[in-house]
Design goal:
CATH topology: TIM Barrel
Protein name: 3-hydroxy-5-phosphonooxypentane-2,4-dione thiolase
CATH class: Alpha Beta
Keywords: Acyltransferase, Transferase
Number of helices: 12
Bound molecules: ribulose-5-phosphate
EC number: 2.3.1.245
Helix content: 40-55%
GO molecular function, one term: acyltransferase activity
Pfam family, one: DeoC
Distance between the termini: 59 Å
Radius of gyration: 18 Å
Shape: globular
Number of strands: 10
């Protein structure tokens, strides 16, 4: 292992230089993957724009019913049409998402804690890859807690998923969760996202942070940005806009869509930012136009 003492901090990210190894494939770092992996990634990332709007509704797996997610069977049909990919648990998807939607699925496959505990960082892989195959998942999602008590077990879960995913050409989305002792700062996300990519995750979910363009440049696979807690719609659209401008390949938003008073209008406005190059202001005007 390289000596930690005396290690020089990274500083030359060449953030304005496009990723150099993409060939003619639209997903970062995926040019040399096999056909099945590329097909699944192309269901998540729109080949025309290279980007994705993921709708996250996996919160119930550790929180139970929360605001906006009381009735998945009623909510998802309103929003699915505007999402490139649905991120949820197998229980939620099997029970409440009609298979006729034929949407890309990012299947939440790690679990192990609940809101009744103080430490949420201990998760392992709980979904069999065979079941992910049966659900025709386009990716499986494993949460990792770099720097937290559960680091080792979540890294093992992620690598287990990646090993199995490589066997069946199913991408793994590493989710860079932030442990309760960790700060949401640039150095944490530089570390966590790069570690997940180097383990072999084919896409990484992260949070937006200062100097996000450095985080995106240093991560050789696509980043999708989580929405986080509910913000005013204008601010959530700015978050989406800054993420895309900073080099994200999409967003994986939950509460900022389904907790909006106008979730259908909000997800359409997010699409304008992600896929159509709208600025945050233009997207907010579009949102206001739809809601007035
Ligand atoms: C963290 C997740 C959740 O899906 C995600 O954070 C929820 O989305 P949002 O923060 O936008 O409500 O992967 O476990």
């Amino acid at each position: 292992m390289a000596d930690i003492i005396g290690n020089k901090n990274a500083k030359n990210f060449s953030e304005n230089v496009p990723f150099a190894n993409n060939g003619n494939f639209h997903v970062k770092g995926a040019n040399h993957y096999d056909w099945g992996m590329k097909d699944r990634l192309s269901r998540i990332f729109n080949p025309k724009t290279g980007k994705t709007v993921m709708l996250a509704f996996d919160h119930g797996y550790f929180m139970g019913p929360t605001s906006g997610l009381e009735r998945l069977d009623l909510l998802i049909p309103r929003l699915a049409n505007y999402a490139d990919c649905l991120m949820g648990t197998r229980g939620a998807i099997r029970s409440s998402v009609p298979p006729t939607y034929n949407k890309a699925i990012a299947l939440r496959a790690s679990s192990g804690s609940s809101v009744l505990q103080d430490d949420l960082s201990r998760e392992s892989m709980v979904v069999d890859m065979e079941d992910a195959i049966k659900m025709n998942a386009s990716a499986i999602a494993i949460q990792t807690f770099i720097g937290a008590d559960g680091q080792k077990e979540t890294i093992e879960a992620l690598n287990r998923a990646i090993n199995l995913g490589l066997r069946y050409s199913i991408p793994t989305m590493g989710v860079a969760a932030v442990g309760k002792e960790m700060e949401r700062n640039t150095s944490f996300f530089l570390l966590a996202t790069r570690m997940l990519a180097e383990f072999g995750a084919q896409l990484v979910k992260t949070y937006y942070c200062k100097d996000f363009e450095k985080v995106a440049a240093a991560c050789p696979v696509p980043l999708v940005v989580a929405g986080g807690k509910k913000l005013p719609e204008k601010d959530a659209l700015t978050l989406a806009y800054n993420s895309i401008q900073g080099g994200a390949a999409g967003v994986d938003m939950g509460r900022n869509i389904f907790q909006s008073e106008y979730p259908e209008e909000m997800i359409q406005a997010v699409n304008k930012v992600v896929h159509e190059g709208f600025t945050d202001q233009e997207a907010y005007q579009f949102f206001q136009h739809l809601t007035n």
